Amino acid sequence: MIFKIIFTWWHRQTFGTFLKTLFSGIYVGKDEFGNKYYKSKNNERWVIYSSRIEATRITSDWYLWMHHTTDKIPNEIDKKKYGWQKNHKENKTGTNEKYNPIKIKKDMVKKKYEAWK
């Protein structure tokens, strides 16, 4: 397990991030995917992913906080969604769960005109 942390970055965090979090990280919060967010005394911000590292797993509220757009820490209490808002999903491009629109065949389209002959 320790070798996995030291030599691989794609499993959650590197050894350097582990040390940085241990010595100077202040826990800020957790999102719905289980990602944990930290900041330092210098207001440097980072995330430790719960499973595989995928940047699109960060919700929009936490994205704003991570990029210093807002200093308000998102929490579960003041999260109210409107009827038109959808739940956050990660980008599924390149996987079997990718968006695949219905293919339109030529006989499905009814033309409103006739082509010249």
Strand and helix map with partners:
Elements: H1 2-7, H2 15-24, E1 26-30, E2 36-39, E3 45-48, H3 60-66
Antiparallel strand pairs: 1-2, 2-3
Describe this structure in words.
By secondary structure, the protein is α+β, with helices and mostly antiparallel strands. It has a domain at 2-80. The protein has three helices and three strands; from the N terminus they run ααβββα. It has helices at 2-7, 15-24, 60-66; strands at residues 26-30, 36-39, 45-48. Strand 2 (36-39) and strand 3 (45-48) form a beta hairpin.
Largest sheet: 3 strands, antiparallel
For the biggest β-sheet, the strand order reads 1-2-3
Number of strands: 3
Rg for CA atoms: 22 Å
Q: Can you give the helix content as a percent range?
A: 10-25%
Shape: elongated
The overall average pLDDT, rounded, is: 82
> What class, by secondary structure content?
alpha+beta
| Series of secondary-structure elements, N-terminal to C-terminal | HHEEEH
Summed up, the helix count is 3
User: Low-confidence parts, pLDDT < 50 over ≥5 residues?
Assistant: none
Proportion in β-strands: 5-15%
User: Alpha-carbon distance between the termini?
Assistant: 73 Å
